[in-house]
Amino acid sequence: MGCTSTKSSKGLSPKLRDKVLSIFRKIDVDGSKSIDKDETIKYWKSNFAKINTNELFKAVDFDNSGQITEDEWMAFWEIVKRSGHTEKEISEELDNLIDGKAWVKFNKVEEFVRKDKERQSSQIHKLVDEEKKKLESEKVINDRRVSQNMSIQNGQNDKNQSNAQYEKKVSNIQNIQNDKSSFNDQKTSKEHKIDKNY
Fold it and tell me: CB of 24 within 8 A of CB of 60?
C-alpha cells in the first residue's frame, strides 16, 4: 500500500482505535485476547487463508510467539499510522479486512520493523508496552461505565419496583374504598327496606 501523507507522530484516533479493536475481536473468536493461526485461517475462510495468515503473522507477531496479542495488534496499527499512512487509508484497509479481503503489506512498516531490530532499544517493544497500558486503562474506564450503568439501571429498577408497589397500594386502597362504598350502598338499601316495612 502506498503512502500519500507525511510522517505523523500522532496516534490513532479513538474512533479508529475502536475499529481496529473490533476487527481483532471479530477474529479472536475464543475471546482469549490473542489470535492464533487457526483463528485467522477460519476468518479468511477460502480467500487465500493460509497466505493471508502467514503474511499477517510475519507483519504483526513481533515476538514470533505464534500468537498475536491485542497489544501487538494495536501497536502494529500505531506503527502504520506513524509510518505516514492517513487515518482514511488505514480505515479503508480495515474495511477490507472486515470484508475478508487479503492482508496488505505495508512496506514502510516492514522497513520500520527491520530498522527497529538494529536498534539497541526497541521502539516496537515500547509501543507494545504502551498499548498494553492503554488497553488496561480503557478496560478500567469501560468497567467503570458498565458499573455506573448497572447502578443507574438498578436505581431505575428500584424506582420502578417502588412505583409498582405504590400503584399496588393505591389499587388496594381503591378496592377497599369500593368495597366500603358497596357495603354502604347495601346497608343503605337494607335500611330503606326496613323503613318501608315500618
Answer: no
- 183, part of any domain: no
Instruction: Assess contact for 78 and 12: CB atoms under 8 A.
Output: yes
Residue 188 lies in a domain: no
Find where cell 327496606 sits.
193
Angle at Cα 72 formed by Cα 69 and Cα 74, nearest 5°?
110
Q: Domain containing 71 — which CATH number? A: 1.10.238.10
Q: For helices 49-60 and 37-44, what crossing angle results, to 10°?
A: 130
**Total number of domains constituting the chain:** 1
**Domain presence at residue 155:** no
Distance CA 162, CA 139 (A): 34
> What is the pTM assigned to this prediction?
0.64
- Report CA-CA distances (Å) from 198 to 66, 191, 192, 194: 106, 11, 10, 7
- Within a domain: residue 134? yes
In the block, cell 467503570 appears at 144
DSSP string over 141-164? HHHHHHHHHHHHHHHHHHHHHHHH
Averaged pLDDT in 10-residue chunks for the chain of 198 residues? 49 93 94 94 86 92 93 93 92 92 85 81 81 79 76 72 76 75 65 59
- State the residue range of the domain holding 142: 14-147
